[in-house]
Amino acid sequence: MANPDDIARAKQGKEVWNKWAEEELGKPAKKRASVDFSKTTISDIDFSGFIFPGYANFDDAPFIGEANFKGAIFAMQAHFLGASFYGEADF
Are 15 and 46 in contact (CB under 8 A)? Predict the structure, then answer.
């Protein structure tokens, strides 16, 4: 299930998210925070330019409207198993 802290941070925008992500990137890979958006409807977050420092989980997440990940950086694995896209998806 999605992490409410990840959702709240993402809704604050790219600058807030990437500031947090840059701090995480300074850690060894095994100690970086993973993010979890699984099983959560995503309709109002633009992920373009976001840096994902650890594992990113979007499994079973329905994306309503545009799913924008243009220019996003995934430093480790990203999973979208069972994710549904009900609009354009831009990677």
Answer: no
Nearest Cα to 55, choosing from 79, 34, 29?
A: 34
Tell me which DSSP letter residue 20 carries: H
The whole-model pTM stands at 0.94
Alpha carbons 48 and 69: distance in angstroms, whole number: 4
Cβ atoms 58, 79 nearer than 8 A? yes
Location of structure tokens 């799913």: 67
At 32, list the tokens. Answer: 């970086």
Q: pLDDT tens for residues 49-84? A: 999 999 999 999 999 999 999 999 999 999 999 999
d(CA 73, CA 10): 14
